[in-house]
Amino acid sequence: MSGDFYSAIEERRSFYSITDEFVISDERIEEVVQLAVANTPTAFNSQTGRLVVLLGNSNKDFWQVIFESIKEGLAEEHIEKNKRKFNAFASGYGTVLFFEDYEVVASMQNKFPLFHEQFTEWSHQASGILQYLVWTSLEYEGFGASLQHYTPTFSSAICKQWGIQKGWKLIAQLPFGKPTVAPKEKEIQSLDQRVVIVK
Fold first, then answer.
1. Which pLDDT does position 2 carry in this prediction?
2. Which H or E run includes 73?
3. For residue 142, what is the DSSP state?
4. Nearest to 116 by CA among 107, 128, 124, 125
5. Can you give the C-alpha Rg of the chain in angstroms?
6. Residue 109: enclosing H or E segment and its boundaries?
7. Which segments constitute the Nitroreductase domain (predicted)?
8. For residue 59, what are the CA distances in angstroms to 1, 52, 54, 86, 88?
């Protein structure tokens, strides 16, 4: 088991070329995601992370929403490039949306005013842990994925359709699917410059 754990860490990479071909069942996807959510540590056990898993047409709809939300701000020469990128994400099996529940964050700030400023930072730290766990877990199951950061404004209809609650703030997206191209070789900086052992 320990070997599997470290292998999963080493093999987690960014995959941008993905398809919607079957890898594991939707029930297994739900199980994997729920396991990550249940076991992600959070400050004061605040459990602020919220996830929405979009599959099928909902996944395609999401990336269309993203494209429409940023298109007007793009120069003409960048529109087609971004459209191809979002189409690539939409062609995957699904996308995990990572939210933080700011109503819970606010309640923790009121409950523990001494740490008022830190709770927002702690919330984002916990989200990062959750993103990593879900990402690594899905790739361990055979998917390829990449982490994205877009902040579209969702219509009330979309919020209702996807179960997005008031107070939820979108932090990141993880499009995933069956990988078709191996990731590029990853350049790792010298660990001697990044890790200091003091005895």
1. 53
2. none
3. T
4. 107
5. 18
6. helix 102-111
7. 9-178
8. 33, 11, 5, 11, 11
Unique residue bearing structure tokens 């916990």: 126
Kindly state the tokens that stand for 188. Answer: 């790792």
pLDDT per position as a tens digit, 167-182:
999 999 999 999 999 9
Length, in residues, of the chain: 199
Buried b (16+ CB within 10 A) or exposed e, 18-28: bebeebeeeee
Long-range contacts for 137-141 (Cβ within 8 Å, ≥24 apart)? 137/8, 137/32, 137/33, 137/35, 137/36, 138/29, 138/32, 138/96, 138/174, 138/176, 139/8, 139/11, 139/12, 139/13, 139/15, 140/4, 140/8, 140/11, 141/23, 141/24, 141/28, 141/29, 141/32
User: Which residues of the chain register pLDDT less than 50?
Assistant: 1
125, 40 Cβ separation under 8 angstroms: no
Q: Whole-structure pTM over 0.70, yes or no?
A: yes
Domains of the chain from N-terminus onward: 2-193 (3.40.109.10)
Residues whose CB falls within 8 Å of the CB of residue 109, separated by 6 or more in sequence, listed in order: 115, 116, 119
pLDDT at 155: 79
Token pair listed for 54:
């979009």
Output the average pLDDT for the chain.
94
Q: Among 43, 37, 167, which Cα is nearest to 116's? A: 43
